[in-house]
DNA sequence: CACCATTCAGGATATTTTCCTATATTGCAG
DNA sequence: CTGCAATATAGGAAAATATCCTGAATGGTG
């Protein structure tokens, strides 16, 4: 079900992306409305799937996950069965935070968050032993310049 | 202030990452405790910065942001002033969801979420007109295989 | 075993969510 | 422009929840 979002909806989403812990009254004040319409709009956007999840963002360093790798993968395999097993392997591994199938030269990109280079190597060895890939390049993040889950909304 | 996380803390974090809308009683039930210790532990982890933010994850497609690009950037510039301006430019642009400085051959990687290829080109032109970069490769995501903000926690 | 510090469960109160109702607003046909 | 129907709104009542307090339980230590 597609939902047409108006300016108030978008303001609410901006507030929720900024801080989902706010009370309805606070959000209502920030968007210039009252709690009932805000509540109805949030419920509607939840039901429509515009809002997918409320969650908490953790500090990777505080959890000892100090190494972030972007992994570029080329493969010569393109059969359905191989792909199914590859996707399953990625979905099953919690250190894989993102995985995209790409257009062009490089077939897949992964974002992998692990404790250190050794942990990455363990992950890498396990992955390539499970599914054959042609060429893998790992890019190691030295510094997170920016990291947000807030999608841009035309206010 | 570093916090030592025990098994209960990690269970709480797993629950909060899964669904931060749960009531304290629910979380307490799920981790086998009662609401007071859960509440105290959450507050402590918030204060310590382990929990950085409570937020809402939105569906990019529902907002008309149907194109996700990973952008690989090489530059010959490595002066402090250039870098400062480059970081500022990235932080100021809301379509840049992630930006990392990398080790090795490629200097930076960005994750950019936009409406379509045209919008990406607009972003790209604006960026290179603002700061000089040597070489830019854009990888277009065809399919999101996995996308999570949940960091792996040894339960 | 006794002491201290820490963590716990359960309860009291303040706050918030959830839903209802009556009013206001908007879009639209005549 | 006017009146009607559909929709959105503000405010309030009841239920649920967060927040904080108290006293009991626990675990490590001399």
Explain briefly what this protein structure is.
Chains A, B: One of its GO terms (molecular function) is sequence-specific DNA binding. The first copy, chain A, is of the alpha+beta class and 155 residues long.
Model description:
2 copies of one chain form a homodimer. The relative contact order of chain A is 0.16. Chain A has 5 helices and 5 strands; from the N terminus they run αααββαββαβ. In chain A, strands 3-4-2-5 form a 4-stranded antiparallel beta sheet. Chain A has 2 domains: 7-47, Winged helix-like DNA-binding domain superfamily/Winged helix DNA-binding domain (Arc Repressor Mutant, subunit A, Orthogonal Bundle); 67-140, 2-Layer Sandwich (Alpha-Beta Plaits). In chain A, helix 1 (7-18) crosses helix 2 (24-31) and helix 2 (24-31) crosses helix 3. Chain A has helices at residues 7-18, 24-31, 35-47, 80-92, 117-130, and strands spanning 51-58, 67-74, 96-102, 108-114, 135-147. Chain A is α+β, with helices and mostly antiparallel strands. The mean pLDDT of chain A is 95. At the A-B interface, helix 1, strand 1, helix 4, strand 3 and strand 4 of A face helix 1, strand 1, helix 4, strand 3 and strand 4 of B. Strand 3 (96-102) of chain A pairs antiparallel with strand 5 of chain B.
